[in-house]
Amino acid sequence: MPSGSSKQWSAKVVSFLFFLAIVSAIEFFHAKQLTFLKNESYSEGKKQLSIIRSRIEAAIVSDMYILNNFSTLVTINPDGEVKNWDKIAENIIQDGFHIRLIGLAKDDILNFVYPMEGNEQILGINYRDYPNQWESVEIARNLGNTFIAGPFELFQGGQALITRTPIFRDPPFNQDYWGVSSAVIGLDELFEDVGIGKIENKYELAIRGANSSGKDGPVFYGTQDVFDNAFATEQVSFPYGGWYLALSGSEHVLMDVPWYRVQAVRLVGYSIMLVLAIAFMTIYRLYLIADSRSMHDELTMLPNRRYFMYSLKQAFKTTQKQRARTFAVVNIDLDGFKAINDTFGHAAGDQVLVECAKRIKSELRGSDIVARIGGDEFLVLLPRIIDDQHVSSIVAKLRKVICTTPVVYETHSIYLRISVGWVIHNNNYDDVDALLKAADEKMYEQKRQVM
């Protein structure tokens, strides 16, 4: 039936759109869930970044406090013996967290280094002769306070900060300049102790503000992209200037979240969709079976009256639009069918109807439609008919195939006889009912002649 395929097509389109909408909704809410989880992770990241900022400040201040004790001792006893400074410097390095080297430069000429081993070559240098060194020394002297320079690349590998603390003989007036105290602070050890390595397992971290230049300084750790996409920032404050920290997301931002939380929406959504899909397919399958049964005769599996009437009306409309095309309706009735039922039983009658249906179909074209419309009556729709002779030849073939060979039921041979009436559509028929009535009358006229 033409409407059957269109119904199936419509059902497939609707079901596709329905499930597409479900998938879109699931993925939409999955994205919302990921955003929520990322925001949770970002909130935790902000807390961790704040902790790292405070740890950096505490570590730097702690080392600076210990180093200031050394500077204070030099201020009190600027002409002290170097051997006494060695002992003090040894204790400072032991008590400090990240101090690698201590130096004193009277009149900005390096005259004391601890530890001396491996650093002999730098003893006696004049900072004024090294612009990159002198810049930070001069800044510290002008500030009258500790200045943190760097980071610098070390020859032995890694990076380090250098603290410059000016020493004056007349504190707090700071007019009589003695020189400068310098210390090398290991940056790699500092970063490890404050937990930067741990936070980078989940996030991207970057630091800017080389030479304590703060927010507007160059990036010396990480990349500029981190600042461009940062969800959290922190300002690290030194006695003068500071650093600017930034944290952005990475592909590992949800690494600590259980997989079932990450996929919760999909797990629930697609489980529900699977149940709905199974239910839909089951209902649709039942619908197709019911629809097929409503359009076909259960015994012969031929189209029934409903199917035939729809097809006939479509042919009627097509012929009205395309005058050159016409069709014929053939009414076939089994003669003596009641006697077959009475003589051989209803099972024999059913077999006769099934065999008759097969024989009719075997002689029809693919475009022809045969339907059982009740009892022992069949209707045939013949499209693309040329003339009366064309219909007569088809009817003759049908009569021959139905009546020539008997239907064998158990040990009985049942010969069939039929009455046939047919009409070709023309302008005299206003509707399908008139057409069917004419074919029916011709069939009964033939039946009366036989009787």
Automatic annotation (TrEMBL):
CDD domains per the UniProt record, alphabetical: GGDEF
Keyword Nucleotidyltransferase: yes
Domain GGDEF as annotated: residue spans: 325-451
Residue ranges of the TM segments: 267-287
E.C. code: 2.7.7.65
GO molecular function, one term: diguanylate cyclase activity
Keyword Transferase listed: yes
Annotated CHASE domain residues: 109-246
Protein name, UniProt field: Diguanylate cyclase
Organism classification: Bacteria, Pseudomonadati, Pseudomonadota, Gammaproteobacteria, Vibrionales
